[in-house]
Every structure is written in C-alpha cells, then in structure tokens.
Specification:
With 126 residues, the chain is an alpha+beta fold. It is built from 5 helices and 4 strands; from the N terminus they run H-E-E-E-H-E-H-H-H. The protein has one domain. The model has no long low-confidence stretch (mean pLDDT 78).
Length: 126
C-alpha cells in the first residue's frame, strides 16, 4: 500500500481511532458490531461455562490502525466507512461530513467534493 494513498485516505475521513466495527451476517441477521481484542484461550474457557462475548470481561476494544484500514481498502474486510458521508440523513443530522482540513468546516456539497478527488487504484497495489 502506497503511503501517499493512505495519507490521502486518512485526510478524507475522520473516525474514532479507539475502535472500529465489522459487518457480521449470521442466519437472517446482519449488522455492524465492535471489534474486540482478547485472549482466545481465556474466551474458550468462558464459553465452556455457557457464557458469551457480551459478558466476557477480559476484552478490550480493538483500535483502528493503518493495517486495519489497508485490509479494508484491499477488500479483505468490509465495514461501513465510505457510505455514511453519502447518506443524506446522516449529513442532515451532522453525523457525517467531509471537512476542509484547513478550516475543519464541512464542504457544503459532499458529493461534489468527492467527485473532485482523483487517485489511481494502482496505489493500492504498491
């Protein structure tokens, strides 16, 4: 992954660094869930007692790192990062905006701003 591309990507999006969510589909349910770090052996012992992740106390939120972002951009992990700025309801509620990095004021037309960004997908391959 080209470091210039990663820098561009980080300049376009603002997110919480202390956690990220992943998409999970199980049976007929789907949704986004926080990702945790924990010792797998301790968790297996916890499960053997009939318990689950919700009541497992030895877990911490997994931080959003460059390696997580790279896996996402390469299509190995999917989570909702780019769709949110395009959802009108989120923009109206002030929950998702691209910001001018010099002023931190949202661009008035999010879609127009996105259309001005040009980069090559080959940057992902380096």
């Amino acid at each position: 992954m080209n470091s210039d591309f990663l820098r561009l990507y980080r300049s376009l999006f603002h997110w919480r660094e202390d956690l990220y969510a992943y998409r999970r589909e199980k049976e007929k349910k789907s949704g986004y869930y926080p990702t945790y770090q924990f010792d797998r052996n301790s968790f297996r012992k916890h499960q053997a007692k009939g318990r689950n992740l919700a009541n497992f106390e030895e877990k911490t939120l997994a931080p959003l790192t460059d390696s997580v972002i790279i896996r996402h951009l390469k299509g190995k992990w999917f989570w909702n990062l780019i769709a949110l700025p395009l959802q009108w309801k989120s923009v109206q509620e002030g929950n998702s905006d691209f910001l001018n990095p010099q002023t931190f004021i949202p661009y008035s037309d999010q879609r127009t701003f996105l259309s001005t960004i040009k980069f090559s997908l080959t940057l992902l391959e380096t």
